[in-house]
Amino acid sequence: MRASIAFLSFAVAATALNTPRNPHKKKPHAIDPKDFVYVDGLRLKDAKGLHYITGLNYWACLNLAADASQGGNYSRLVTELDQMAAHGVNHLRVMASSEGAPTPQPFRMNPPLMDAPGKYNEKVFRGLDICLDELSKRGIRATMTLNDEWQWSGGFAQYVSWANNNTAIPYPPSWNMTKAPQRPTPGTGWGNYSDTEDGAHTYNEYTTFANQIYTNQLAEQWYKDHIKTVITRKNTVNGKKYNEDATIMTWQLANEPQSLDSFNTSDPLFPWVDRISTYIRSLAPKQLISVGLESKQGEQIFKAVHKAPDVDYATTHCWVQNWGIYDMYNASEANLKVAQDFATAFVANTSRWARDVGKPVFLEEFGMARDNWENADKEYPYLSSASTTHKDAYFRTIIGAVMADFKKGGAYVGTCPWAYGGIWRPETQVMNEFGMVWAGDPPHESPGWYDLYDDDEAMNIVARQQKDVAAWIKRNSTHGY
Ligand SMILES: *[C@@H]1O[C@H](CO)[C@@H](O)[C@H](O)[C@H]1NC(C)=O
Ligand SMILES: *[C@@H]1O[C@H](CO)[C@@H](O)[C@H](O)[C@H]1NC(C)=O
Ligand SMILES: *[C@@H]1O[C@H](CO)[C@@H](O)[C@H](O)[C@H]1NC(C)=O
Ligand SMILES: *[C@@H]1O[C@H](CO)[C@@H](O)[C@H](O)[C@H]1NC(C)=O
Ligand SMILES: *[C@@H]1O[C@H](CO)[C@@H](O)[C@H](O)[C@H]1NC(C)=O
Ligand SMILES: *[C@@H]1O[C@H](CO)[C@@H](O)[C@H](O)[C@H]1NC(C)=O
Ligand SMILES: *[C@@H]1O[C@H](CO)[C@@H](O)[C@H](O)[C@H]1NC(C)=O
Ligand SMILES: *[C@@H]1O[C@H](CO)[C@@H](O)[C@H](O)[C@H]1NC(C)=O
Asked: Counting Cβ atoms within 10 Å, is residue 389 exposed (0-12), middle (13-18) or buried (19+)?
C-alpha cells in the first residue's frame, strides 16, 4: 500500500512540471530494509538480481546532516542527495567515524563524532542517522568507513595519540586554509600546504606513528568499542538498528590502511585485518565487510589483505596525480594518455588478482584535477572555472574499463569517484565557526582539487554508466543469467 501511495505522488510530480520538486517522489525506489546486498562468486546481488554499484564518495554526510548548531546544512544535504539520485547514483561511501582531541587539532573534520574514547557528540551521531535515512529513501546504499589512515578525520593517529598520553601527532604537509596567500575577506582561503617551517613532518614519520594502531592494544580496544557502538546503534530517525538495515551495504575497516613499504609476511597489517573483520562479522552478520585498501602496492599485499575470510570483496583506489603518473599543469594529450593507460592496466591487474582470490573488487576511489594549467597564473590553482577535458576523458576511460570488465564476467562490481562537492565552489567558500568549508576534498587537501560539481560533465558520465549497465543487466538476464 505504501508503494501505491508513493507511486501516485510520483505521477503527480511528473505531470506538474511547474510545481516545486516533490521531496517524496523517490519513494518508489526506497530500499527494503531486508534487501541486503550479498556476494555470489565474483558478483554482488540484491533481491532484484545482479547489483552494479554506481557510487560516489560523500564522506562528510554525517556533518552536513547534523544540526545547524554543529555546522550542518540540511537544505544542502537534500539538494545534493537529490542531484546524485537523479544521476543514477545508488551508493555513497561515507564516514562513520571521526575523532577529536583534548586540544584543537588542525586538518580534520570538525566537530568530530567522538570527542574522546567512548565520548560521543550525539548531535553529530544524529547526523549519521539522518544521512542513512535520507539515503534509504532515495534507494542509495552506503559503505560506512570506521577509521582512517589519514589525518583528515583524526583516525589511526588520533587513537595512537590517545593511547600515548596525547602525544603530538607528526602531521605530514597538509592544506592550511589560513596560511598565505589570503583573500581580502577573512575565512575564505586560499592558503597553502604546511611545510617544515610550520612543523610538518614527512609522510613516512606520519604513517610510522599512525600504524602503531595495528599493535597497540589500548588503541585497538577503543577502536573496537567504536565499531560496536556504531554497528549496534538504533537510528533515532527511523528506529532501524544499523546492523538490521540493508541501507548499509558494507562496513569498512578504514580508509586506506597502509602496509609496510614492500611485502613482508610479518606485516602487522595482515593479522589486524583478520582480527577486525572477524570482530565486525560477529556484530553485523547480514552486511558486507571491506578493508578500504588502495591496492597500490602490488599483487602480494593485495592478496594477503583480501584473502581474510571475513573480507567479502576487495577494494581499489587509483590516484594518477598523487602517484606521480599525471601532471595537472601538463595540457598535452601524451600526459592524459599516460594516465589512461595506467588506469586501464591497473583495472586489468586488480581484476585478475581479485579473481585469483575468488572475490569481487570495487573501484571505490579515483579522481583527476580539472584542466588546472588554465589556472596556473591565477590567484588559486583549483578555481572551478577551469574546464575538464582531461578529467572527462579519463573518467570515460576508467569507468569504461570497469564496466567492460563487469560485462565480460570479471571481478569488478562498480565505481565510486572522489568526491561529490555538489553546490560548493572555492570561489564562494566561507569557513564556518568550526573552520570547515565542506568541499568534496577533505580538510587536509586543497579545496577544489578533486571535487565533482553538480554541473560537471563527470556527473553525466556517472549517469550514463548507470543507464548502460542497467540496460546490459536487463538484456543479459532475459537470457537466463
Ligand atoms: C546551506 O545550503 C544552502 C543551499 O541549499 C545555501 O544556500 C546556504 O548558504 C547554506 N548555508 C550555510 C550556512 O552554509
Ligand atoms: C602525560 O602528559 C602530561 C602533560 O604533558 C605530563 O604532565 C604527564 O607526566 C604525562 N604522563 C605520563 C604517564 O607520561
Ligand atoms: C597555519 O597557518 C597559520 C598562518 O601562517 C599559522 O599561524 C598556523 O600555525 C598554521 N597551522 C598549522 C597547523 O600549520
Ligand atoms: C605554495 O607555496 C609554494 C612554495 O612556497 C609556492 O611555490 C606555491 O606557489 C604556493 N601555492 C599557492 C597556491 O600560492
Ligand atoms: C619484515 O617486518 C618485520 C617486522 O616489522 C621486520 O622485523 C623485518 O626486518 C622485515 N623484513 C624485511 C625483509 O624487511
Ligand atoms: C607532459 O607529459 C608528457 C607525457 O608524460 C611528457 O612527455 C612531457 O614531457 C610533459 N611535458 C611537460 C612540459 O612536462
Ligand atoms: C600490471 O601488471 C603488470 C604485470 O605484472 C606490471 O608490469 C604493470 O606494472 C602493472 N600495471 C599497473 C598499473 O598496475
Ligand atoms: C551474461 O553475462 C555473462 C557474463 O559476462 C556471459 O557469460 C553470458 O554469456 C551473458 N549472457 C547473455 C545471454 O548475454
From this structure: middle
> What average pLDDT does the structure give for the chain?
94
Percent of the chain with pLDDT over 70: 94
Contact 176 CB / ligand 3 (< 6 Å):
yes
3-state secondary structure of 83: helix
Tell how strand 288-290 and strand 248-252 pair up. Answer: parallel
Q: Which three cell numbers stand for residue 139?
A: 534507494
Side-chain-side CA neighbours of residue 319 (13 Å): 16
12 in contact with ligand 7, CB cutoff 6 A:
no
- List the domain boundaries for the chain: 2-475
pLDDT per residue as tens digits for the range 96-131? 999 999 999 999 999 999 999 999 999 999 999 999
Q: Which ligand is nearest to the CA of 333?
A: 6
Identify the pLDDT of residue 19: 41
With a 6 A CB cut-off, is 478 part of the ligand 8 pocket? no
At the topology level, CATH places domain 2-475 in TIM Barrel (3.20.20)
Secondary structure of residue 169 in the 3-state scheme: coil
Nearest one of 357, 347, 345, 368 to 413, comparing CA atoms: 347
> Residue 234: what pLDDT?
98
Q: Looking at ligand 6, which residue's alpha carbon is closest to its atom 12?
A: 330
Taking CA atoms, 366 is separated from 184, 260, 347, 352, in Å, by 34, 22, 11, 19
Q: How far apart are CA 475 and CA 109, in angstroms?
A: 44
Q: How far apart are CA 58 and CA 95, in angstroms?
A: 8
Report the relative pairing of strands 452-453 and 420-422 from DSSP bridges.
Answer: parallel
pLDDT digit string (tens) for 322-363?
999 999 999 999 999 999 999 999 999 999 999 999 999 999
List the alpha helices (DSSP H) in 24-147.
61-64, 74-86, 122-137
Which atom of ligand 3 is the closest one to the Cα of 191?
2
Shortest-distance Cα residue to atom 6 of ligand 4:
192
Contact (Cβ atoms closer than 8 angstroms) between residue 422 and residue 384:
no
DSSP string, 241-304: BGGG-TTEEEEES-BS----SS--TT-THHHHHHHHHHHHHHH-TTSEEE------S-HHHHHH
Ligand 3 mutation target, pool 169, 179, 183, 196, most atoms within 8 A of CB: 179
Instruction: List the alpha helices (DSSP H) in 138-216.
Output: 155-163, 203-210
In Å, what is the CA distance from 218 to each residue of 50, 268, 287? 42, 16, 27
